[in-house]
Every structure is written in structure tokens, then in C-alpha cells.
Amino acid sequence: xxxxxxxxxxxxxxxxxxxxxxxxxxxxxxxxxxxxxxxxxxxxxxxxxxxxxxxxxxxxxxxxxxxxxxxxxxxxxxxxxxxxxxxxxxxxxxxxxxxxxxxxxx
Length: 106
Prior knowledge:
By secondary structure, this protein is an alpha/beta fold. The protein has a single domain, classed as Rhodanese-like domain (Oxidized Rhodanese, domain 1), CATH 3.40.250.10. The chain is built from 4 helices and 5 strands. The chain has helices at about 5-15, 30-35, 70-80, 90-100, and strands at about 1-5, 20-25, 40, 60-65, 85-90. Strands 1-5-4-2-3 form a 5-stranded parallel β-sheet. α2 (about 30-35) links the parallel β2 (about 20-25) and β3. The model has no long low-confidence stretch (mean pLDDT about 95).
């Protein structure tokens, strides 16, 4: 699985002709604090039962708070046949600190 830094993701989002699927696997209370625009929110524990909501053909970038839960989910998705999965290293916390300081940190 590929690891993306927040700076790499920002450059990718700015340059991509087709936006990747941003999958936020944090809990609802975390998403209420801050969210990356355009993300699909499916909490980690709901992923197995909601796979049909994900587009297997699109690049999927998995996001959590610091990158640990998202790494586990990305690994799971690869084992479910998703071919193009990336983990956001540092998670939404790194995004809020390095890319968009208007987002809340927690």
C-alpha cells in the first residue's frame, strides 16, 4: 500500500483530473470537529458492511486522525480487492497543521 504525506496529497488533489475517493474512517464526533472537504465518512468499524458504497475503480485515500486506523483500513481494502489504495500519513491532524490551519486540531 502506498503512503502519502499531506503535502503529496495536496499536490495530487491540485493536479488530478479526477479526484480520488477520500475515505474518512474516524468516528462521527471526530468528523464534527474537522473534516477534509469531499471526504466520504464511514467509521472504521462499519467498513466491512459498507464496502458497496466504495468505488473499487477509483483511487482510494484513507484518512483518520494520525494515520494508524487508516493504515489498517487500507490494508483491509487491499485484501478485499481494491487495487489502488493509499494511506494518508499523519492523518487529518497533519493536514490541519501543514495544509489548512483553519481546521481544528484535537
